[in-house]
Design goal:
Blueprint (H helix, E strand, L loop, with lengths): L2 H9 L12 H10 L1 H5 L7 H11 L4 H4 L1 H4 L2
Length: 72
């Protein structure tokens, strides 16, 4: 993932991308950003992105929706 989008996402201090309520942007964004786990891209320089993705992974539907990727 290019650094510019990561920096932009990292500026957000809200619980979710568009505020304090989950939206379709969070679901779509999580699909894209979580690929970083598969390709070994560290999100360490972007603590707010890490926080947000960690929160998304805590959703009760996360494991079921991502079971194929979790097996890789």
């Amino acid at each position: 993932m290019a650094a510019a989008p990561q920096r932009l996402l990292d500026r957000a201090k809200n619980q979710y991308l568009c505020g304090d309520e989950i939206t379709i942007a969070d679901y779509f964004g999580a699909c894209l950003v979580s690929i970083s786990d598969l390709i070994g891209c560290s999100l360490a320089p972007y603590p707010n992105v890490q926080r947000w993705l960690t929160n998304m992974k805590k959703l009760k539907s996360w494991d079921n929706v991502n079971e194929v990727f979790s097996a890789l």
